[in-house]
Structures are given as structure tokens and as C-alpha cells.
Recover the amino acids of this structure.
């Protein structure tokens, strides 16, 4: 059974469709990356997943509970951070967790458990105002994990962190999924980091899911043949004559032809006096695939 399933989610405000027929699921033991440019509908989707706003159409099911019909039972399965962790900096880490544990009616023994999971037990009695940004992010994740949720939803958990902090968050999330069997949903603008962290990814653009699948599936589906040539203008003319789709990058031609079709094309270029200095298959990164899918728009 899916840990969370969103089916045909739509959100219309006035005459604007913010989210349009979005569907995806989260599975136990995986990290799911949610990517999109500014204004794509990511935050609106997250707010619908955690019950902060109601969808115009569609359903959200969490651990088998319909969010609309069994709101409290569904929410007990979710731990979330929407935007920045809501922490009191004048209080210690322990006092913050005690405060939220009382709100959630969970035993204080939970505090030690979540502090160990996020590697903060040794700093728990220090004031949050003395924490680094990475430590505050980890404390926020600890807060979200009070009550042992089966689904963890995080909005930009590595935002603003240095490389060491980003790696800490990545290893933490991978560990929670692999070792604890949690379903972890991560909205992020750090495309290279999502490529390292996520098992599956969905790309949302203008309110609709453009592509989804495993990271391996998405980047392997964007395999191109890279040709370095001496005369890009002449080579481009030949490819157009042969009706071969391509793009250029400096002295490179990038085309989606199969590797087996490369030798005849190289022969045609060489026969027309175009020097071909190398030809190799290249798999696009998740970032390149994202930019192609969204027409070059950057993430927020």
C-alpha cells in the first residue's frame, strides 16, 4: 500500500488554476523529489497534502486514510516542515521538542529518540539561537518526526546550508527511508542534490506534472549523441538536410539519434569536409533534463 497517494489534485482560485490534475504516490522506504520552477504549484500542492488548504478537486490518501474524511487519522501519519522550521530560538532544543510533544500529546521519551536520529542529542540542552543553520534544520526534522509518522514532508530542507550541512541532511533522509522505512517527500531547488538523494522524482510546471519516474529512468531517457565538429555551421546545415533534430553548444552538436545511427551520420559529415573530432553518447544530468522539460525556467 502506498504511504501517500495524491489523485487528480487541482486547486482553482478565482479564474486561476494553480494546480491542475496532479497525481503521484509515495512508497514506504523511498525519497521522493518534487521539483518545479517558481510559481509552478509546489507549495500549493504541499499545502493540500498536509490539509492546510482544501483541493478544488481530487483526493489525498495517507496510510489508507482519506484526508478529507479521516482528517485526524491521516494527519497522525504525517510529519512535515512547510517552508522554515517553526522554532523558538530563546529556548533550548529540548524545550522546543517538549513544547511540540505536548501539542501532539506524545510521551517525552520521544524526544530522546528523535534527537538521536538527527544526531542532536549532545546539543539538545543548548539554546537554539546558538545552533548553526544545519542544526536548526535537523531540529526541525526531529520536531516533524515526533509521534513516529510514516510520511515525512519537507519543503526545502537543505536551503541555505553549506556543502557539509547539505550532505548531513542527505544522509539523514536516505537513512530514514532505508533504515526506518519512512516515505520521505522533498521539495527542493537543489537539482544536483535531488539527483543524489531521491529514488523517484516528479517535475511540476505551470501546475501540471510534466515528467515523473526514477532518477535513472528520467536521465537515461535523455541520452544524446555528442559530436564535436570543426565547422558547426556546415554540420548544422547537413543535419537539417537529413531532418535530424539537434541543438548546439559551442563546437558541439547534440542529437537524439541512436548510437547505432551515428557512423553513417559521421561519414556524411566527413564526406562533406566537416571534421569530426569525437563522437560519444552522453546522458543528461537531472538539471539538464529539468531545464529542457520546463523550457529553461529555473527552480525557486
Amino acid at each position: 500500500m502506498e504511504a501517500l497517494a495524491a489523485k487528480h489534485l487541482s486547486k482553482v482560485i478565482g479564474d486561476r488554476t494553480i494546480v491542475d490534475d496532479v497525481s503521484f504516490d509515495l512508497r514506504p522506504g523511498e525519497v521522493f523529489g518534487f521539483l518545479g520552477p517558481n510559481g509552478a504549484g509546489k507549495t500549493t500542492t504541499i499545502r493540500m497534502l498536509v490539509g492546510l488548504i482544501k483541493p478544488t478537486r481530487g483526493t489525498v490518501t495517507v496510510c489508507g486514510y482519506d484526508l478529507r474524511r479521516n482528517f485526524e487519522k491521516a494527519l497522525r501519519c504525517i510529519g512535515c516542515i512547510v517552508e522554515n522550521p517553526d522554532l523558538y530560538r530563546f529556548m533550548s532544543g529540548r524545550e522546543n521538542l517538549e513544547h511540540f510533544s505536548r501539542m501532539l500529546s506524545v510521551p517525552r521519551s520521544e524526544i530522546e529518540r528523535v534527537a538521536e536520529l538527527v544526531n542532536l542529542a549532545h546539543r539538545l540542552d543548548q539554546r537554539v539561537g546558538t545552533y548553526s543553520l544545519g542544526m536548526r534544520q535537523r531540529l526541525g526534522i526531529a520536531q516533524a518526526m515526533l509521534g513516529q509518522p510514516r510520511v515525512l514532508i519537507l519543503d526545502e530542507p537543505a536551503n541555505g546550508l553549506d556543502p557539509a550541512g547539505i550532505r548531513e541532511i542527505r544522509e539523514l533522509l536516505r537513512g530514514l527511508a532505508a533504515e526506518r522505512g519512512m516515505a520521505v517527500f522533498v521539495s527542493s531547488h537543489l537539482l544536483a542534490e535531488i539527483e543524489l538523494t531521491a529514488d523517484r522524482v516528479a517535475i511540476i510546471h505551470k501546475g501540471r506534472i510534466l515528467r515523473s519516474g526514477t532518477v535513472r529512468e528520467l536521465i537515461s531517457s535523455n541520452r544524446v549523441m555528442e559530436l564535436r565538429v570543426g565547422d558547426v555551421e556546415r554540420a548544422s546545415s547537413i543535419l537539417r538536410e537529413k531532418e535530424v533534430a539537434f541543438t548546439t553548444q559551442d563546437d558541439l552538436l547534440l542529437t537524439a539519434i541512436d548510437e547505432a545511427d551515428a557512423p553513417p551520420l559521421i561519414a556524411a559529415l566527413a564526406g562533406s569536409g566537416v571534421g569530426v573530432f569525437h563522437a560519444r553518447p552522453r546522458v543528461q544530468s537531472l538539471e539538464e533534463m529539468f531545464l529542457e522539460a520546463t523550457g529553461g525556467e529555473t527552480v525557486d
